[in-house]
Structure formats: C-alpha cells, structure tokens
C-alpha cells in the first residue's frame, strides 16, 4: 500500500474517509490535495521512520533522567550575615519660597521671576552652595461670596529656590541672607551619594568576609571536608531618605534680626546584608 505524502501530520490528517464502512468492508482513502506533488512512499517505511524517531526521543529523555538521578546532592545550608555602621549626614538640602499677589497674572509672574533671580544672584557669592530654581505656580483668587456670579479679584503665585551643600556654615549664612525676602520652608540632611557609595563598598567587603567565615564555621560544625557556594544575594538598607528638620515656614526677617543658623546634620545607619546558600561536601 502506498501513500501520496511523506509527512505525517499529528493534528491534521492527510487522508479523509468518505463514509463510515459497513461491517466487513474496508476504508476508502482519498489523496489529500496538499500532497499531490510529493512522491509516493510505502506506508510501512513512513511508519518505520516515525517509530525510529520516537524511540530516539524516548532514549534521550531516559538518559537525561538517569544523569540527573546520578548527580550527587549534599547537605545545603541557608544563612545570612550583615554589617552596619553609623555615618554622619554630610549634605544639606533646603527650600525657600516667595508668595505674591497681583491683579495682573503677567505682572505677577514677572515679579516672582525677579525675586528668584535676585536670590540666585546672591547665591553666586557662596560657591560651596548649589542653588537652583524650584517649582513656580499661580492660581486665581475669587470674591468671598460663594455664588455663581463670584468675580475674579486677583492672582496669587508662589516660586521656590532650592539649596544643596556640604558646607553647613556657608549654607546657613546664605539661608539667613535670603530670608530678607524669602520664607524658609524646610531643611533636610542626608548622606552624599559619593560618600554613601564608598561606605557601601567597604561594608560589602566586610559582609562577604563575614559570610565566608560563617560558612567555614558551619562546615567545621558538621565535620565536612569542604563546602561550595550555591547562590548569594547582597542587599542594602538605610540612608535612602533625607532626614527632615520639621519647622514652620519662617517669616521674612530683616538682615540684622536674622542670625545665621547653625546646623547639625545627625547620622544615618547604613546596613549591608549578605544572604546565600552553601553545600557541605563530606
């Protein structure tokens, strides 16, 4: 018996039955239209090739399972170590702002811009303090009567300047100077990025050394000859958020009545955690 197609489709038959045969009769097979161009091959050869491929797949799967079963496994131990250190906050961040009102929104925006530009110009005298303009916004002010006919009375606007410095003394002097026209909204302290990175590198080395020492202690306790590292993870905690100094927005003061503030940045606790798994080898 010959078939007109060399490929056997598992999800789409190559031959179709015409009718359900009566008992004792044979199936009538018709050639699939997509296989008319392929050379005829005996059904026995097609089935033989299919069986051979199936046997090969089963043999490979059996070999892989046997290899996995023969792979030796040892006692696995999970544990972690950590190193922590207090570090001084060496960066100050402050925000000052000004609020003004005017009936003309264009004139209001101009007044706010002039005030911030003046503050930035004064900041140039303090090279160790980084100053930058912050948010600026304006909103309408309506009459006090809550009716549909309430009229627009004026506009009010707010603009900010932001300071960043490691020189607390210079920052304090500049803040005192700017408070002649601006309001102090808040101050926060944090660890500078480069300072934090250097400490993280040091603590990471210490934490890994502690992990290795702990692993050897576990090996000795179990009378194992050796151990190997399976996996390791390193995490960092602390020192992410600036430490705020809570205060109300201070009122604008005269230069003589506004002494330069003295700041103490406080400390931040930085922690490096090393966790992982080892396998003990007898």
Summarize the structure.
It contains four helices and twelve strands; from the N terminus they run E-E-E-E-H-E-E-H-E-E-H-E-H-E-E-E. By secondary structure, it is an alpha+beta fold.
What can you tell me about this protein's structure?
This protein has helices spanning 43-70, 105-123, 168-178, 193-221, and strands spanning 2-3, 15-17, 29-31, 41-42, 75-88, 91-102, 129-142, 152-165, 183-190, 226-237, 243-245, 267-281. The longest helix is centred in the last third of the chain and has 29 residues, at 193-221. It has a five-stranded antiparallel sheet with strand order 7-8-6-9-11. A three-stranded antiparallel sheet has the order 5-12-10, covered by helices on one side. Strands 1-4 form a two-stranded antiparallel sheet. The chain is of the alpha+beta class and 282 residues long. The chain starts with a strand and ends with a strand.
